[in-house]
Amino acid sequence: MSCLKCLKYTMCVVNFIFFICGVGILGVGIYLKTTFNFSALVPSIPAMSVTNGLFILGIFITCVSFLGFLGALKENRCLLISFFILLFLVMLAELAMASVLLMYESQIDKMINEGLTKSLKAIEKNTTSIEWNTVQTTFQCCGVQNASDWESHVPKSCCKSQHCNGSEPYWTQGCYTKLKNWFEGNLLGTGIGVIIVCSIEVLGMCFSMTLFCHISKSGLGYK
Fold first, then answer.
1. What is the structure's pLDDT at 114?
2. Where are the alpha helices (DSSP H) in 123-186?
3. I want to staple 58 with a disulfide (CB 3.0 to 4.6 A). Which of 25, 66, 76, 180 is the partner?
4. Under CATH, which number does the domain 108-179 receive?
5. What DSSP letter does each residue of 69-101 carry, written as one string?
6. 60/54 Cα distance (integer angstroms)
């Protein structure tokens, strides 16, 4: 029984931490949703909006973690098996998403490039786009490929200095290349993070199933 209690409270603590993380992700998603429109940069791929992804992910993590926490605390077999099934479905979704990204990498890359070009052309004469100004200032880039994408309406966020002085007043690299290099540079860290998350999910599934079996053997039945 001591091992069962240890497993029970370990699951409670881990799921409580996940619940806090989920609330934090949800908060970040809401903040970005109200201040930054990622779909304005890549209108052809609205489903890949970072803010929408964070919002949905935050809600899902909070719900699943609360389910696992309550199931472990109350020793409820129904909640525990539901928690196990949801984690299993999440792992299948992650594997499917990884497979799609690997199989259609070149097509997705092309769509992002075309989306950036389309969004730039849509605001070419109105250089006050918050999204483009933020990206160009953060990544020190200009346009999709270079400053010529803006033609004669180059925004101030492309300037290397405050007054665009010098022989090369604008950033020479385009934002598409800078963003691509940034994602590729963080690919290893992302991969390690995904592996850690998957490992935690597997542990969570093992813990929930072990606790489920112990409760079943004790003859408590469904509550």
1. 80
2. 130-139, 175-185
3. 25
4. 1.10.1450.10
5. HHHHHHT-HHHHHHHHHHHHHHHHHHHHHHHHH
6. 10
CB 2 within 8 A of CB 214: no
What pTM was computed for the model? 0.69
CB within 8 Å of 8: residues ≥ 6 apart: 72, 73, 75, 211
Extents of the domains making up the chain: 2-102+206-218, 108-179
Average confidence (pLDDT) per 10 residues, the chain, 223 residues: 77 86 83 67 57 79 88 86 88 80 78 79 63 82 84 81 73 85 78 79 84 75 46
Residue among 150, 130, 118, 121 at smallest CA distance from 45: 118
Residue type, 171: W
What dihedral angle (degrees, nearest 10) is formed by the CA atoms of 104, 92, 20, 214?
-170
